[in-house]
Specification:
The chain is of the alpha/beta class and about 375 residues long. It has 13 helices and 14 strands. Bound molecules: nicotinamide-adenine-dinucleotide.
Length: about 375
């Protein structure tokens, strides 16, 4: 039996990974460590927590006592570190928190894993570790910086982060590499492009646009909407991490991407037409519309005909500071070495995702109460 420490398991990708693992592998134990920040929600994993294979610990990855206690109580085989402050806009507002969680938190996990996994020393003084243990750092394509019109990020592309978020993720990657080089700690790093899918916190582009449509709000798009991101369905990312954990070569970095580049404005237009079509097809989906919008001043009455869901809702807002122009991943290495490829076509994944949001408005309301309202007001005002 393998025992996993999954950090950030109550967040978007971490929770999807927990669900993926529980379905894929029978003989496992998952210890989820999550500090339940605004981005983490126990509601996201409530059914998983009923599974006897799962233990939840609330705590900070930077808290050495909590992490030590976990390693003391459970003989952890794999650490998969999803826990992070993950939103670029928030990093522009409060960079220090990003450095604390993303860099120092990562270093704390590495240090305690190293301590508990060490069984002795070799003749050169390097630690010798328990067999078949591994630390996997979940990183991002943003560490490579920004691309022009052409080209792709490969694993050897120089690191060139631009935002406080990407700089903190780069710092984390470098300390992971340092533990691999200096102490021979068995590690992998995965660098993935933008994920989309169920349980995505509605401050990020796709769920934010869906949420705003349902509330009859304007749809804010940064700059002229021409920034390009490479979108991957979250389950495909989870599958890649599982494959790297089980079969990735020790010490290696793997890029994960969907070969699916889209301009932000294309994504927004696609969401508008998909929501409208789904509501035309199935009247039940109109129940997701918020007639009691949080904005009582609107006193919304949605017309029966969903034609009002159209591109007139789009409003271009002042561009994000230092907004990276284009990201695009070359995933050839993971495909060649491990046989991974993105299974979910974007056309299908986006419809699946939008249906999920239309059918799971309770979840959206649960995670966006409280802190989120203040944050939205601060970023976009009354739009
Ligand atoms: N979302 C993407 O498109 C994307 C793409 C590539 C890589 N990544 C990386 O994947 C990881 C997960 O991203 P996500 O989108 O699921 O993020 P998220 O913001 O949805 O979730 C982060 C989770 O980490 C928890 N957390 C935050 N600080 C913590 C701390 N100090 N200690 C313990 N728990 C803490 C939060 O409570 C939350 O549950 C991150 O490391 C991110 O950098 C994300």
């Amino acid at each position: 039996m393998k025992i996993y420490l999954v950090t950030g398991g109550a967040g978007f990708i971490g929770a999807n990974f927990v669900k993926y693992l529980l379905k894929k592998h029978r003989n496992i134990r998952l210890i989820i460590l999550d500090d339940l920040t605004y981005a983490g929600n126990l509601g996201t994993i409530k059914t998983d927590l009923k599974d006897q294979r799962v233990v939840f610990v609330k705590g900070n990855i930077g808290d050495s006592e909590i992490v030590t206690n976990i390693f003391r109580e459970y003989p952890i085989d794999y650490v998969v570190n999803f826990a992070a402050e993950s939103h670029v806009d928030r990093s522009i507002e409060n960079p220090q928190l990003f450095l604390q969680t993303n860099i120092l938190g990562t270093q704390n996990l590495l240090d305690i894993a190293k301590k508990f996994w060490t069984t002795g020393k070799d003749e050169n003084g390097y630690p010798v570790y328990r067999e078949k243990v591994k630390y996997l750092q979940v990183s991002t394509d943003e560490v490579y910086g920004s691309l022009g019109e052409t080209g792709y990020f490969t694993e050897t592309t120089p690191l060139d982060p631009r935002s406080p978020y990407s700089a903190s993720k780069t710092g984390a990657d470098l300390i992971v590499v340092a533990y691999s080089e200096t102490y021979k700690l068995p590690i992998n790093i995965t660098r993935c492009s933008n994920n989309y899918g169920p349980y995505h916190f509605p401050e990020k582009l796709i769920p934010l646009i869906i949420k705003n449509i349902l509330e009859g709000k304007k749809l804010p798009v940064y700059g002229d909407g021409s920034n390009v991101r490479d979108w991957l369905y979250v389950e495909d990312h989870c599958k890649a991490i599982d494959m790297v954990l089980l079969n990735g070569r020790i010490g290696e970095i793997y890029n994960i991407g969907g070969h699916n580049e889209k301009k932000n404005i294309e994504i927004v237009k696609l969401i508008i037409s998909t929501v409208r079509n789904l509501m035309e097809e199935n009247k039940d989906y109109r129940k997701a519309l918020k007639t009691n919008s949080s904005r009582s001043d609107l006193n919304l009455q949605f017309p029966d005909n969903p034609d009002w869901i159209n591109e007139d809702l789009i409003t271009f807002v002042k561009d994000r500071l230092g907004h990276d122009k284009r990201y695009a991943i070359d995933p050839a290495k993971i495909t060649k070495e491990l046989g991974w490829y993105p299974e979910t076509k974007f056309e299908n994944g986006i419809v699946k995702t939008i249906r999920w949001y239309l059918e799971n408005q309770d979840w959206v309301e649960e995670v966006t109460s409280g802190d989120y309202q203040n944050y939205y007001q601060q970023m976009y005002g009354d739009r």
